[in-house]
Write a structure and sequence with these properties.
The chain is an all-alpha fold and 176 residues long. It has one domain.
Length: 176
């Protein structure tokens, strides 16, 4: 499992690096576009589309990487961090199961959408590329979330075996 963890670490690192690179490109294109539009009265026809597609890319890959990291998705951590013992175990399993089922279902739908002729043959106006490419990060991000959900089951199981989910007797001065 250590080899798989290293592979998933690398995938997560690459996703974060690509998301950061995309953010930098989006920033540069936006700044150039602002100067061209307001100073020279000119505009690139592809700039808005590139930034819009970049937002989807960053959201899907960055979201998948954040799902894997502890504290990456605050809403889940806020709930789980306030309960202990068996309730924490059950809640972790329920949340992870919902994420696994949702990401798996959406991944399958995204893959079916990518295969449709209306997506493959349609060409974007500004960038003149197949719409397959702007839709691809959606499928990749959902696939990553699905794989990371499977890894979370393994981590929950390891935590259970280490006794992290045991109900502790309440002693004076301690919190449960």
């Amino acid at each position: 499992m250590e080899k798989i963890k290293r592979i998933l670490d690398m995938i997560s690192f690459i996703a974060k690096a690509l998301a950061a690179l995309c953010l930098g490109i989006m920033l540069a294109v936006s700044l150039v576009e602002i100067v061209r539009r307001y100073v020279f009265g000119l505009s690139f026809s592809w700039a808005d589309e590139l930034v819009r597609d970049g937002i989807v890319f960053v959201a899907m890959l960055g979201g998948a990487a954040a799902y894997r990291e502890a504290g990456g998705l605050v809403a889940f951590d806020l709930i789980v961090a306030h309960v202990k013992g068996t309730v924490n175990l059950v809640l972790s399993l329920v949340i992870n199961t919902v994420c696994l089922l949702f990401s798996g279902y959406m991944f399958l739908n995204a893959m079916q959408t990518l295969e449709t002729p209306s997506i493959v043959k349609q060409v974007s106006v500004g960038l003149s590329i197949s719409m397959f490419w702007p839709y691809l990060p959606i499928a990749i991000g959902l696939g990553m979330i699905f794989i990371f959900s499977l890894e979370k089951y393994y981590n929950i199981f390891l935590g259970y075996r280490r006794g992290e989910y045991k109900n502790k007797a309440k002693t004076e001065g301690s919190e449960i």
